[in-house]
Design goal:
112 residues, globular, seven-stranded parallel beta sheet, mainly beta, 8% helix
Length: 112
C-alpha cells in the first residue's frame, strides 16, 4: 500500500506500507515493512522500518529492524521485539482489502 496523502486512523496490513514524500500518516500502523519518505506520527509495529532521506517519524516504534538514512529524522522511542512477539502480533492482524480510491482522497476523522 502506498500513501501520498493524509490519513488519520489505524492501518493493519500483512504487506508493505510506503509513505510517499507528500504522505502524512497519523495513528497506529502495523505491517511487515514500512518505508517512510513523508511524515509518520503515532505508534508503529513492524518487522522492519526504514526512514528515507527527508522522511520523518515521530512515534513509538516496536520493530525487529530499523534503519534511518543520514538525512532522515526519528523522534520517539524504539522498542526491539523478540521475533516470536512480532510474529504473534502480525499474525493477529485482520486481513485488509485494498482501497480503491487514491490515498489523497482517503481521510478518516476521529469522533469525539
Amino acid at each position: 500500500m502506498h500513501i501520498d496523502g493524509t490519513f488519520d486512523g489505524t492501518i493493519s496490513s500483512i504487506d508493505n506500507i510506503s509513505i510517499g514524500k507528500s504522505g502524512h500518516v497519523r495513528g497506529l500502523i502495523r505491517a511487515r515493512h514500512i518505508n517512510v519518505s513523508g511524515l509518520l506520527e503515532g505508534d508503529v509495529i513492524c518487522d522492519e522500518l526504514h526512514i528515507e532521506a527527508d522522511g520523518k517519524v515521530q512515534a513509538t516504534v516496536t520493530s525487529k529492524q530499523m534503519s534511518i538514512n543520514a538525512r532522515g529524522n526519528f523522534v520517539g522511542e524504539r522498542k526491539n521485539w523478540e521475533q516470536a512477539a512480532v510474529d504473534k502480533a502480525l499474525e493477529a492482524l485482520p486481513v485488509v482489502e485494498a482501497i480503491e480510491a487514491p490515498a489523497e482522497k482517503v481521510v478518516s476523522k476521529k469522533k469525539g
